[in-house]
Write a structure and sequence with these properties.
Rossmann fold; about 55% helix; binds shikimate-3-phosphate; globular; single chain; about 170 residues; five-stranded parallel sheet; about 15% strand; alpha/beta
């Protein structure tokens, strides 16, 4: 039986540098659940890194693979913590699937904070060699998609990982 309707997963969305992977892994430890990162699923499914996929097959192909990774992540049999690549919510199917399968938390931070966290953007093809302006633009372009997917919003600016994890778990348990 599909358990999609049970909204059993905890799902983290947000821009690059929002802390989805770090916070997600820590939440998974606290909840004693598996942790699934959609970028890792794409890489495991293809044997290529995200950067290699963008470089050799292009962003459109990466997005197709990401859509499959979202399907795979949501199909994790045990309740899991899922960190989504920052652009996954741009796709309407992904938005619906994630919202149905989990409680979705949008991790937010100011573009300057995001930029400080991702440093040079290494391994993130949309950021490499670009500056905070790119994140500012993505924040504007994607805001509606994050908002449409999320059940709760957690501001990560000026907070430690521990504090963010507490805030995410509090939202999730309510
Ligand atoms: C992307 C975010 C990245 C990765 C890819 C594209 C995006 O994941 O999926 O580089 O479009 O925002 P993180 O948000 O985990 O860095």
């Amino acid at each position: 039986m599909s358990n999609d309707g049970a909204r059993r997963h905890l799902v983290l969305v947000g821009l690059m540098g929002a802390g989805k992977t770090t916070v997600g892994a820590a939440c998974a430890t606290r909840l004693a659940r598996p942790f699934v990162d959609t970028d890792d699923v794409v890489e495991a499914n293809t044997g290529m890194t995200v950067a290699e996929l963008f470089a050799h097959e292009g962003e459109a192909r990466f997005r197709e693979l990401e859509r499959q990774a979202v399907v795979d992540a949501c199909a994790t049999p045990a309740p899991a913590v899922i960190a989504c690549g920052g652009g996954a919510v741009v796709d309407a199917d992904n938005r619906r699937r994630l919202h149905r399968a989990g409680f979705v938390v949008w991790l937010q931070a100011a573009p300057a904070t995001l930029m400080a966290r991702v440093k040079t953007g290494s391994g993130r093809p949309l950021l490499e060699g670009r500056g905070t302006a790119t994140l500012e633009r993505l924040a504007v372009v994607r805001a509606a998609a994050y908002e449409a997917t999320a059940d709760a919003l957690v501001d990560t600016d000026g907070r430690t990982v521990h504090e963010v994890v507490d805030a995410v778990l509090e939202a999730y348990r309510q």
